[in-house]
Amino acid sequence: MKKNKMLIEQLEKDTSCCEKRQLSLYLHIPFCVKKCLYCDFLSFESDQEHINRYVITLIKEIEKKALLFKDYELKTIFFGGGTPSLLNGKQLCQIMDAVKMHFNVPIHCEHTEMEISMEINPGTVTREKLSAYYQAGINRISIGLQSANNQELKLLGRIHTYEDFQKTYQMARSIGFQNVNVDIMSALPNQTLEQYKDTLEKILNLEPEVEHISAYSLILEEGTYFYDHYEYLDEETDRSLYELTKNMLFEKGYYRYEISNYAKTGHECLHNEVYWRRKEYLGLGLGASSFLAEKRFKNTNDLNQYLEEDFSRYEEQELTKQEQMEEFMFLGLRLTKGISLNEFESNFKVSLYDVYGKEIKQLMKEGLLCLDDYHQHLTLSQRGFDLSNYVFRYFLK
Ligand code: SF4
Fold this sequence. Notes:
Layout: H1 4-14, E1 21-29, H2 48-66, E2 72-81, H3 89-102, E3 115-120, H4 127-136, E4 140-146, H5 150-156, H6 162-175, E5 180-186, H7 193-204, E6 212-217, H8 225-229, H9 235-251, E7 255-258, E8 261-263, H10 270-276, E9 281-284, E10 289-292, E11 295-299, H11 303-307, E12 314-318, H12 321-332, E13 339-340, H13 341-348, H14 352-365, E14 369-371, E15 377-380, H15 382-386, H16 388-393
Helix pairs in contact: 2-3, 3-4, 4-6, 7-9
């Protein structure tokens, strides 16, 4: 655990020029109605009293930490969890008011408004709540559906049905939300191709159509009920589910801009791009992570400690140059646009080929990496996307 002083010194050193640096803000709400059986996120059931205290503490953290970021302008805001939609309208407004009051929030015209996202769980929102979120400035919602099959939802330990999702979705649309993501998950225990296809069809036939779809495969995380009770699907079924996602989404006009993320043009998630591009972000709330001045920071995971409001306690990891380059490669290559050779050179003062020439040559020979016509960008090929984990291993020394 380190003290804030070092962070202040580092940030002051890095903000000596007059131009404002951009910062994305992540706010963690760690509470859920019930823990899902596959989930290893920092989230847990709680009572109203703890949620109230948490909101007060989070606002204090906003007030205190914002002082360090006077020279920054916010680029995106993301409420993640947990289940942020457990907050009532008033609590969300109080948090947003604190953010607007203490951080530099850019004033945009209506066509370039700042992306402010919030994760929503079906079964936790009312019209009144959703309207309050909208009024407070939330302009992108991400709905955790996972499956359109009620038996699968039950198996996952989700608290909602597909009908709850439909109700939430229609309510959000009628309130005015125009940028909606739906999370779905494949490779569930015993899942058949037909079952998963049905989920995809239901999502693709939503009216109006959804702007963004995050499609992940189930990961059996150690410490979860699923880890102890289930096995991964066989490789062949898993591969067929993956191909089905790609093909069905492509046919419906979704652009795959990241390994697991698909969007209608212009609706890519700007906040998540900040993570993949290694831009600076500040995470506030329990266990929240930040990336600033090539260092990674992490708040305490202990709720009682967090509620004591000693925000000078956090873990800090300074990345070596080697680690920075590795991250640049395996995070940037997740994106369809890939990585810029010039950006690598300007960041690390060494050419990409001097560091990874041998690896790139080999992976291009295997047809897994491609260079654009101007030799400016390196990207995964279609096959490279399918074998991305294999490719990324090449860049970890
Ligand atoms: S709702 Fe999300 S964060 Fe909460 S337990 Fe389920 S998967 Fe985890």
